[in-house]
Fold this protein.
Amino acid sequence: MHELSLAMDLIERAEEIARRENAKRVRQIEVEIGDLSGIDRESFAFVFPEAASNSLLSEALLVIRTSSGREFQFVSMEVDDV
Amino acid sequence: MCRDCGCSTVKHRLLSDFNTSHHHGPSLPTLTLPNNKRRISVEESLFEKNQNLARKNRQWFKSQKLVVFNVMSSPGAGKTTLLCKLLPKLALDHRLAVVVGDQETSIDADRLKTAGVVAFQINTHSACHLDAKRVMDAVGQLGLDQLDWLVIENVGNRVCPAVFDLGENFRIAILSTTEGEEKPLKYPVLFSEADLIIISKSDLLPHLDLNQTTLLANLRKMNPNAPIITCSSKSGEGLEQLADELRYLASGKETPDVSRYANTHT
């Protein structure tokens, strides 16, 4: 169950970028998780809301893009200023 | 390839809607959306945090001329028993130490110490694997300049440890004969990334229905090149061959290509 610690790394990185880009909230976040990444997509989606609580991502929708390789990539995020 | 820095992120160059600021700078490519929203293109590996620390470990180990092995398997495959049998012999001509990870207790480190090996226990508590930071913290207390080899016995788990680079030179995957023929197919990351594969508990073969031909074929499907050694900590079968293989790997005749690790994939 390393999904929680990886989800927390994602939240930390997303908040860092959001603050740097002067965003107030993250509305949607997209990650790519490959079949050989060693990360279970369902587990990741399950722990994400817990990792995101009390952060700029507390209301963010998680979008997981699938691929066949080893990718575990922070693709993009949608932010707003209000 | 990106024309700005040579990175392989093709996507951000092709999306002409994005503004021109480069993604490595303070401002990332951003697309303006309706309702005051913006889409920020990030495109970075989330293994990067562990990977940066693993890279530091690798440089540090190299500066100390230390050869590092990361031993991984399911719980109960016989990692500690094998190391207790194997390492005292290798310790005659190499200064070596073991760092062993478990969720709780120092049972494994105590067993290794009883066998005459320098050992240091890491307790990961809730975590299911060792990561580069935990290894860095532990080896800081070991006095690396006194060592030739460091053996990291990872937490018993076929899944998670395989994903986290620790900065090691060589990955060793152990599969015991009781685990059956299909595990290499079911847990592809561990076996495909290994530099050496050990089939342990060969003394049990007469009591099992294991089809060794199928097992070897499945291992080869996942990993065409790594040496595969069958051994038994109980009977001693294969232990000499295994010791020779470790000496050969550590001699530097095989230069591992660290770019093959899952975590370094970009």
Q: What stands out?
A: The mean pLDDT of chain A is 93.
